[in-house]
Amino acid sequence: MNTIAVLMTCFNRKDKTLKSLECLFRQNTDIDVYLVDDGCTDGTHEAVALQFPQVNIIQGTGNLFWNRGMHLAWTTAAKTKDYDFYLWLNDDTSLYENAIKELFSVFHAAGESDVIVCGSLQSPTTKAVSYGGFGKNGLLAPDGTPQECLTMNGNCVLIPRSVYQKTGNLDACFRHAVGDLDYGYRAKKTGAKIYTTPDFVGTCEHNPTLPKWCLKETPLLKRIKILYSPLGYAEPVPFFIYEKRHFGLFVAMKHFITIHIRLIFPRLWK
Fold it and tell me: Per-domain residue ranges for the chain?
């Protein structure tokens, strides 16, 4: 029997967190859940403790965001037990029935130990692929077979102990975004492979709107503040580190410059 630690982090979206946990515990799989409460003020902590007392709730600092919250969850789980597998799960992801079994099916079919399985997720409204693995042309839609990836979104990812031992934890230099993409590339450099699930294993709505720092309607000072916040999704310094690490100094410098050109002159982009 494999031991599985599910890693989650949350902040002030109680209903989504509860729904995600409800779907998770319907999987008929033996799991230990580690959930970081990063300073929730909407009653998430209390509601989870009441409805799912088996969840290990870890108190965050209130300033961890996704990547550092998941880093704390992983650190805590790994110190608690030497788990066979770790499952990243976003708290706005609702798994379909037998989703975890589908992840393991892909893992066992690969016939290797250093294999990461990325769950393909779809929008609950459009039914199109919303998160999953990335190929050379972008996000991969399920085609009925496992597809090898370059890297992956962190919404639903199964990672075996062997990959964790070689690659380590998420890099805490990232606060919110790109830590998952970075981890995929780092794991690949150790020899690991990444595969998508053949079909969708759950839903997670993709936010199609541009960050407010890209919009000409947003005042300049506010655009600067948003860009340099973790929720700007292109935080310049961490994004530079990520791109330099995996794509080289030229690409990192180019995008660092163009991000700031777009920040100052948003009308140049449509």
Answer: 4-203, 212-268
CA angle, residues 201, 230, 9, in degrees to nearest 5: 45
Assigned fold of 4-203? Spore Coat Polysaccharide Biosynthesis Protein SpsA; Chain A (3.90.550)
The structure tokens listed for 18 are: 């509860």
Encoding tokens for residue 41? 């003020």
Query: CA nearest 80: which of 25, 3, 17, 166?
Result: 3
Token pair of 239 as six digits: 């994004």
Q: Measuring CA to CA, how many Å separate 4 from each of 7, 74, 77?
A: 10, 12, 10
pLDDT, tens digit, for every residue of 220-241? 999 999 899 888 888 999 999 9
The whole-angstrom separation of Cα 198 and Cα 68 is: 30
Block residue for tokens 């079909």: 199
| Spatial distance between the Cα atoms of 91 and 16, rounded to a whole number of angstroms | 6
| Whether the predicted model's global pTM rises above the 0.85 cut | yes
Encoded tokens for 175: 């606060």
The identity of residue 143, as a single letter, is D
Residue 51 near residue 24 (C-beta atoms within 8 A): no
- Which of 151, 51, 17, 34 shows the shortest CA–CA distance to 88? 34
Interstrand relation of 56-59 and 94-95 (parallel, antiparallel or unpaired)? unpaired
> In angstroms, rounded to a whole number, what is the distance separating the alpha carbons of residues 117 and 240?
27
